Structures are given as structure tokens and as C-alpha cells.
Request: fold
Amino acid sequence: MLGIVLCGGQSLRMGSDKGMLSHQNKLWANVASDKLTEFNIPVKFSVNPTQKELYAGYFSDERLVIDHPSLDIKGPLLGLLSAHISEPFADLLTLACDMLLMEIRLLEVLINTFNASPSFEAYIFTKDGQQEPLCGIYTRKGLEKILHIMQTKGLAKHSMKFILENMNVKEIEVNEADYHLFKNFNAHAEINGL
Reply:
């Protein structure tokens, strides 16, 4: 398994690269990475081409997955499929860099579910019936399938929701007390007091 920190968003509302923001004296990218490395797996950072130089100042080139130029898509799916093309034999444990509150115990639930029920193509949490695709496990088999659909028929939509509709997904319902752990921080006003 390979950990992938999703950092490749445009950060338009934040106004600066979210992965490079600091929380408790750590880059947001490192906050997410540290959680994934708890499981003794290698971790890489998914970034877009405009971020490569900035991230190369903090992480080795081997730890960067740059959006693949052959993929004419946008959003988190671009990072996910680029990571799959870069590491085609790995199952991917993903975490968005702006999910600052995510706790290791929930990532552990994800991994335990994956190990206990290995026949699914993706493993994600649901919160009040809504899928939370930016913290999940996407298997090599499932990603091969999505890439094949894209290359042969073309994907009708590039949203993670649409992708999950085309995969055999194991959903894990989140307790209401843990809903806040899935918050994405998108603006400076949201992170005041963190």
C-alpha cells in the first residue's frame, strides 16, 4: 500500500497553496503525511505541475507525484489516476492535505476494513449518507478499471462521486460525533482558532 497526500488543488479560496500552510509548526502536507506514515507505508505527495518547484524545496523528487500530462481531467481524480499511473501495482490510501482534523484511529478503521473485506475496489467513509471520497483506499484493481473506462469510452463525468458509482465500494458509516473530522479547510477564516 502507498499513502498519497492530495495537494494538487487550486487553493483558490485560500489564496495560497494549502499544502504549504503551517499548522502547529508543520506544513499541512506534513500533517497529513505523518498520519499516513503511522501505518509503516511509503507516502507521496500528489501535486500539479505548477507546484513541482515549490514542493521540491521540501520533499525529494521521488516523493512527488506530478499530474500526468496524458490525463485530460481535473480535480482529485487527476491526482488519484496520476498516482496510479506512477505506481500501478499499489493500492492507494489517500488523504487530502486540508483535512487537518482527521484522526489516525479512523484511518485505522479504514485499513482494518480493507484487510477484513479485500474483495472491494474502494473503501470510503459516509457521513449522513454522503460519501467522503478524499480519505479512502482505492485499490489497484479499481483504479485500473477507471483508467480503462477513461481510455476506451471516456468518462461522462470527472467527479469522485461518479467514479465511485462505477466501482464496487465498501462504505463505512461515520458516527455523528466524528463528522467534524472530515472538514476541508478552504479559507483563512475557517482556520482561525485551530
Summary: The longest strand covers residues 130-138. The helical segments are 28-37, 52-56, 76-86, 104-116, 140-152, 160-165, 188-191. The mean pLDDT is 89. The beta strands are 2-6, 22-23, 26-27, 43-47, 64-66, 92-96, 122-127, 130-138, 169-173.
